[in-house]
Design brief:
Radius of gyration: 17 Å
Order of helices and strands: EHHHHHEHEHEEHEHEHEEEH
Oligomer: single chain
Helix content: 40-55%
CATH architecture: 3-Layer(aba) Sandwich
Distance between the termini: 55 Å
CATH superfamily: HAD superfamily/HAD-like
Strand content: 15-25%
Number of domains: 1
Largest sheet: 8 strands, mixed
CATH topology: Rossmann fold
Length: about 260
């Protein structure tokens, strides 16, 4: 037994999972119109440029301030109500085919994402994956405190998959990993079979230098038409996470103001 680890955004789905929920959060009263505009613009920038270390650090800091006091239950409810409408049409057919290929070979499929488990967990359940690893935020009395307990990013992703592999008895040399971003080089380098998917410029160069395979995923489909109904939710490895990242990424990746905004 071994595993295949998949980054989520631009690897399994065609957009940023966090940014996709900005409008439902606005309707739910958690963010304002300015944040939604930033999210829309940031989605465009993200699709063109990807995310770098600076933007991810900004996301972390903005996330802490933004989600303080948010109701955990309200976040769960919003994600549950809008998940299939927002995410179902965005899943790459190529990723679904790889899920099936790895399962047929006896490997578990694990999604590893810097987004929160309130999003990543339900997405994993919808796709029928075995486990998810995601960012974890502290919760007290049913609300987010604004403190991050575990940030699933960079080296932390590599540490988390190594710990999971130890618990499950997997040899990382037998495992696979897929990602689009150079920020995930530590995770990719930790396994015996790294694959760059739709790589950003920095990851494309790194993959070429290290003779890693490069794949292009370009066919989003409705996952509900391709994935059998799973028997139960995936096991969450990194604990509870927040979807607050959705607008956090918007702020982080929207490094310039929205056109026309002062």
């Amino acid at each position: 037994m071994s595993a295949a680890f998949f980054d989520l955004d631009k690897t399994v789905i065609a957009k940023s999972s966090t940014l996709a929920f900005s409008r439902p959060f606005y309707k739910g009263g958690l963010v304002n119109r300015r944040a939604v505009l930033k999210a829309s613009y940031a989605q465009f920038v993200y699709l063109l440029q990807g995310a770098d270390e600076d933007s991810m650090d900004k996301m972390r800091d903005y996330l802490k301030a933004l989600c303080t006091g948010w109701s955990v239950q309200q976040v769960h409810d919003i994600v549950a109500e809008t998940l299939h409408e927002l995410i179902d049409p965005l899943v790459y057919a190529e990723a679904l085919a790889l899920f099936e290929e790895h399962r047929a070979a006896g490997r578990e499929v694990v999604i590893v994402s810097s987004s929160g488990d309130e999003m990543v967990g339900p997405i994993g359940e919808m796709l029928g994956v075995d486990r998810v690893i995601a960012t974890r935020m502290e919760v007290e009395d049913g609300t987010y405190t604004g403190e991050i307990a575990f940030y699933a990013y960079g080296e932390n992703k590599a540490t988390a998959i190594a710990e999971l592999a130890r618990q499950r008895g997997w040899e990382l040399a037998d495992c696979y990993a897929y990602s689009d971003s150079a920020t995930d080089v530590p995770m990719l380098a930790a396994v015996g079979h790294p694959v760059a998917v739709n790589p950003d410029r920095a990851l494309r160069k790194h993959a070429a230098d290290h003779e890693w395979p490069v794949r292009v995923f370009a066919k989003p489909v409705r996952a509900s038409r391709r994935v059998p109904t799973p028997p139960g939710p995936p096991v969450a490895y990194a604990g509870v996470l927040t979807v607050a990242a959705l607008v956090a990424v918007a702020w982080a990746l929207g490094r310039r103001s929205v056109p026309g905004e002062v």
